[in-house]
Amino acid sequence: MKKNATEFLHKLTNEDVTNMIGANAEDIQIISHLNEILESKGMTQKELALRSGLRHATINEFVNMTKKNINIGHVIQIMLTLGLKELSELFEIKVEKQVPAFKFCSDCGVKITYKQYLNAGGVCESCKSKY
């Protein structure tokens, strides 16, 4: 992956992602399989931390999904250390409520996120400010 794409992904927060897809954070569930993977490999969180170069607290946050924002670099380091090939081996993402990602402003036709569409009454910010 190009460096600028990695930087872009790293800067995305959970709120950015939920805004892009038009869902609320409570509609998205991220399930970590890290604990099961560690158990199957006979490895502890502390051992993974030592092998990956990440803090033990960081590994624990991934196991318990207590981290608000996920650092893609940490995910890649964990995957490399454990020999995982697919992100789906590490995480399962469930979206409870399917909503369209984008709609179009009813006034000017510009593409806006579904969340913006709902919050602004079907218009973009520019058109909303006209009223």
Q: Can you characterise this structure?
A:
The structure is a single chain. This protein has 131 residues and is α+β, with helices and mostly antiparallel strands. The protein has two domains: 3-95, lambda repressor-like DNA-binding domains (434 Repressor (Amino-terminal Domain)), CATH 1.10.260.40; 100-131, no CATH class. The chain contains nine helices and four strands; from the N terminus they run ααβαααααβββαα. A two-stranded antiparallel ribbon has the order 1-2. Strands 3-4 form a two-stranded antiparallel ribbon. A hairpin with a 6-residue loop joins strand 3 (102-104) and strand 4. The longest helix has 11 residues, at 72-82. The radius of gyration is 19 Å and the shape is elongated.
Task: Write out key terms for the chains shown.
131 residues; alpha+beta; 434 Repressor (Amino-terminal Domain); 2 domains; two-stranded antiparallel sheet; two-stranded antiparallel ribbon; 4 strands
In short:
52% of the residues lie in helices and 12% in strands. The protein has nine helices and four strands. The strands form two sheets. It has a two-stranded antiparallel ribbon. Strands 3-4 form a two-stranded antiparallel ribbon.
List the helices and strands and how they pair.
Layout: H1 3-11, H2 14-21, E1 28-32, H3 34-40, H4 45-52, H5 56-64, H6 72-82, H7 87-90, E2 91-95, E3 102-104, E4 111-113, H8 114-119, H9 125-130
